[in-house]
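COURSE: Structural Biology Practicum
ASSIGNMENT: Worksheet 4, Part C
STUDENT ID: 0417
INSTRUCTIONS: Below are two proteins. For each, the amino acid sequence is given first, followed by its structure token string. Answer the questions at the end about the second protein only.

PROTEIN I
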Amino acid sequence: MSLIIKNLHAAIDGNPILKGLSLEIPAGEVHAIMGPNGSGKSTLSKVVAGHDDYEVTEGSVTMDGENLLELEIDERSRAGLFLAFQYPAEVPGVTMANFIRAALQARLPEGEELDAVSYYKNLYEKMDQLGIDRQFTSRFVNEGFSGGEKKRNEVLQMMMLEPSYCLMDETDSGLDIDALKVVADGVNSMRSPDRGFLVITHYQRLLDYIEPDHVHVLADGQIVRSGTKELARELENKGYDFLKEELEVAG
């Protein structure tokens, strides 16, 4: 059981971004990706999730043996993939409660209805865990939310949907230390032998709270170095200069 990316090449408007990236994320593991600006980190998450701005020109992405590249965005989601956005979108006119409820209903077999009592019980438990005021259930998705509230809402959706593989694109961006801890606690509560995580971040501080099994450095569309959490600490202390040779090869 793994999310496997092999020799992935992807471009936007004809400009190559990913240039032969390979990575395997087994269920039960947390992998972190770090790298300079423009290295392809966010592109990777969007390509795997199925963003139609990007063209896959070579390679494969499989999830537990299923070819993700043959699936539409909603099919990838129903198959068990979740993407937490760096910049979560607003959805005017749709309340948080109805948005999450519709997503859960879409995963049920045809003709089966979501139990409203159980749904709200579970939703409120998760909101309490993340420090989200219960009144937010009646607010439109992310409309007027602060950056931290949007990120907590992303993690709330992830906790409710219980995906098999979670892609987290700079979820720590814009969070103060208290919000970071709350979000990290939510993610850690979901760690399971049956669930894999790919955490994309600029900063080692997130990895103090979400401890990765593996850390990878992405540069110019390729993974140039992999290691343990100590690699993230090296990057924090030394910057990317100590990987100069690998970065020059990638470039």
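PROTEIN II
(use this one for the questions)
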Amino acid sequence: MAHPWIDISYPIENGIPQWPGDPPIQISRLSEIGPNSVAQVSRLDFVSHFMTHVDAPAHFIKDGETIEKVALDRWSGDAVVVEVEGDSIDEQHVPLDCQGLCVLFKTRNGDLWQHRTFQENFVYISESGGKALAARGAKLVGVDYMSVDRFGTPDFPAHYAILGNGITILEAVDLRHIAPGNYELVAFPLNIVGCDGSPVRAALRAR
């Protein structure tokens, strides 16, 4: 009997933390079931990168693949959750054998989500970590806060190392209750033509 799927997506609602400078998400009702309407319809206003979401190569790579051009198997497959202590994810934290795997990093970032405002001091992937993930053949890289790069970096080395080598990125996953180990991952984006990112409903199940 297969293990159950575990939702690792953070809920989307008004007032959630946003990347500084991005407009806040707004969820509103266009109609409510009642005397004047037979259906409830909601309106969603958001940027392409918020809460649990994926980055396509086009996010940082000129002429890179946009969301609809990335094969679905690059957003899913065999995964490994790696727990990291400290303030950055470096070369030594990257599994030596991660060829074709979705590598998700569990850090102290999980504690930051108790705040309703953006937290700048999140754990990030260093340049050495990004290059190691590319060199060792990871298929997808996931982190448990809003960016793989350090907040305030001027050159975004992790994004360039990862996306520049055709590896997809999954950000802001909820790994607080996930034990390190081997899993199956699904994190399919919306089929938005020409877009650089998309919110996802990401899930894991144990192998």
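ANSWER KEY EXCERPT:
Q1: The mean pLDDT is 97.
Q2: The helical segments are 127-135, 157-163.
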